[in-house]
Amino acid sequence: MGTAQTGEGDGDAPSLSTSSQSFCAPAAPAPLTDTGKVGEIGGLGKGVGEALASLSLPLSVQTELENVLQCSVCISTVVRPVSLGCGHTFCKVCLTTSLQRSKKKCPTCRAVCHIDPAAAKENTMLANISRVVMGSGVYASRAEEADCQLAELGEQLPIFFYNSALVPGEMLGLHLFEPRYRIMMKRIVENGRKFVYLPSFERYSAKEGDIGLVAELEECSEFHDGRWQLGATMKERLRITEAWVEDGTFHLWYCKLERIRDQKGENETRTVDSAKRCLAKLNEAGDVGVPVEKPQAAMPALTAANAESVSFWIASRLHLRARDSMQILRDTDTVSRFSHLMEFLDARIAHKRAEHERAALRASERQAREQEQEQERRDSRQANLEMAGGTAVASPAVEGSHGVSSLSLSQTDRPIVLGPGHPLYHPDFRGSLPIVPSALAWGREEGHAEEERGERPL
């Protein structure tokens, strides 16, 4: 779904919901001393905040600071301040709510801003000054309330679709050239360096309940024509809670998401034992020749706390099919994931061993055929040697595939010619037997006709 419009003029800031107004209500003024000045507030750290906290400011200065630090959306001193490129600063929760309805425009000047306020870094200097003006206790209370509202609003990230399923810990190299992904790269480089990696094999669209991964940029570079080359690491699993296409972005999808965590098992010993059995099965698979990838990173320490990471480390080394990878991502029980991995490894090991057995059988059959052919060649050579001592004649018999059923060796003045293709022909005897172009023919002498002998030519 697209981003909703506010229906207000460009010069007016969008109105907030009742819940946002209740959160952003003006805070009570800081406690005053008997001299009418702000008391000292410690614990602000070094910098401007510490310097202001060490001073006693007149009430007029405090009022002026409150006006300068006022958020134009909630009309109160900023909490968790976030500054835009245009120079205006707002509360993080106010900016998040506003940008959801104003098509990525600054609530004050309506300048376009490509920023995810929920993931944006706070302006630390302004936050320290606000803490001085409001008082540490009041600021901490409002900041805690803001964090709760941000959690309710949910994190928003752009979506990158790809027809391959990965698991946490794997790395991905990409070369992006589509206009929507060029916009995505400019936004995430400026803010957060994170995006959603969503496996999609048909529709290249997102819906509630889809499973994906949070991808974090490791390195990236932009070419002169706007293309991007990047390397990203898959981090956490996620489930999409809401998805929409943002207007004016060449069909770039955005989504709200929730992280997926494994359920903590009661029996930690069972979890570690499952991990050990799965690692042993992985080593066995490598020994029998199952393709196993080299690890992209060192294996996490084998403890109950790291069992989830170990399971994904094992999965990243296997050539999993898409449906197997998606099953691994959906599992929220670590022991169940190890069981699925061992089932996959057992199937691959059995398949590889069957391949070895078939290969051994084929080799044995090939060797037997070669021995049989060698024996036939020896028999043929022996027959030709025996034939070289006499002359082959045709015995009157039933015709076979070569015109006669058999040949006998006898002394006669009418030799036959054995040409290539005859069972008794061998090139070693070309000099001892007369050769004519025909495959097999009777030798003729002048005055001797075939009809007189009553013999048939071969």
TrEMBL record:
Annotated ranges, domain RING-type: 71-110
Basic and acidic residues biased stretches: 356-381
Pfam hit, one: zf-C3HC4
Single GO MF descriptor: zinc ion binding
Residue ranges of the region described as Disordered: 1-21, 356-407
Keywords: Metal-binding, Zinc, Zinc-finger
InterPro entries xref list: Lon_prtase_N, Lon_prtase_N_sf, PUA-like_sf, Znf_C3HC4_RING-type, Znf_RING, Znf_RING/FYVE/PHD, Znf_RING_CS
Protein name as catalogued: RING-type domain-containing protein
Organism per entry: Chromera velia CCMP2878
